[in-house]
Amino acid sequence: IPDFRSPGGRWSRYTPVTIQEFLASDWDQLIVLEDDTIVDWAFLATLGEVDLEASGIRYLRLFAKRPCAFRRVSGRALESRGLRADWVAGHSLGEYSALVAAGGVTFSAAVSLVQKRGQYMAEAVSPGTGLVAAILGLSEEAVREACREASEHGMVAPANFNCPGQVVIAGEKAAVERAIELVKARGCRKAIPLPVSVPVHTPLMQKAADRLAADVAVTAFSDLEVPLVNNVDAKPLRRLTEVRDSLVRQLPSPVLWEGSVRAMWEMGVRTFIEVGPGTVLTGLVKRIVPEAMTLNVQDPKSLEATLKTLNMNR
Fold it and tell me: What φ, ψ does residue 236 adopt, rounded to 5°?
């Protein structure tokens, strides 16, 4: 990827951050300046021209925002080699990265929203009262029925419709545990409690969504350069008003990932490139539309392999 220069030419030197250096770096020492530039904290400290903290220059330390930063740099690497998406989509938190890629919001603004989103989610339920579980090998309707029956023990609902035979449920602990018993009785292949206690993408997140709405309302968004197929409706969005509304509704609503992939396939998308750490979405796409070409970019090796497959290696 190109060098990331210091903003506004304020410093006479710059730090070249290649994708290899980025992926191997100390994440806690990377920062994002207000103009969306990713630079190295230690490098700025060596310049001796300005006290970054005292100067009031706005920045965001990456810390827990690693996936967003990872996807952003990987996406820039693709763009620098001449590859831009015709459509974008992201699973849950990944929808923010997709919006950045579509030109709908700056990376730094997205990271700020992600931070607040996480805070509001954590504060929406008491610690230890929620539970999330993956249900494998059962139809969507059977999972819905189990959740409805278990609701006498509390709130439980489907949270992610990931692919055929894979639905994630979430809610209050007692209700989720009862739903697990019910899906097993209905013949599911596996019911796996996950090491997550925040029941995101369920109605229990409505308070968090209401709080997030205020932040989304004052964040600068633009109409998208390419369509985003959103989580909550599995429909393409382009207008900033639609994006704002969708991000807020996403928190208390299930992720329609299977529907999103099918929608893109029906609209003519044949190649899906997963950008960021891991290949989970690649696997889901293959289960949804086995005929699709699936690629991923998560390190220099996979970047070159993807470009070679697409005959763009240069």
Answer: -75, 135
> What is the pLDDT at residue 243?
97
- Range 232-238 average pLDDT: 98
| Exposure on the CB side of residue 201, measured as CA atoms within 13 A | 22
Q: Where are the beta strands (DSSP E) in 62-186?
A: 130-136, 156-163, 166-172
Tokens 């382009």 belong to residue: 238
Structure tokens at 102: 């579509």
Residue for token digits 């209050």?
Answer: 172
- The single residue listed with the structure tokens 């990987």 is 74
pTM (2 d.p.) = 0.81
What positions carry a catalytic annotation?
92, 201
- Section 187-204 average pLDDT: 95
Higher pLDDT, 170 or 296: 170
The single-letter DSSP state of residue 4 is B
Residue 41: CA atoms inside 13 Å, Cβ hemisphere, count?
16
How far apart, in whole angstroms, are the C-alpha atoms of residue 189 and residue 174?
21
- Measured over the CA atoms of residue 9, residue 15, residue 20 and residue 21, the dihedral's sign is negative
* Burial (CB count within 10 angstroms: exposed 0-12, middle 13-18, buried 19+), residue 70: buried
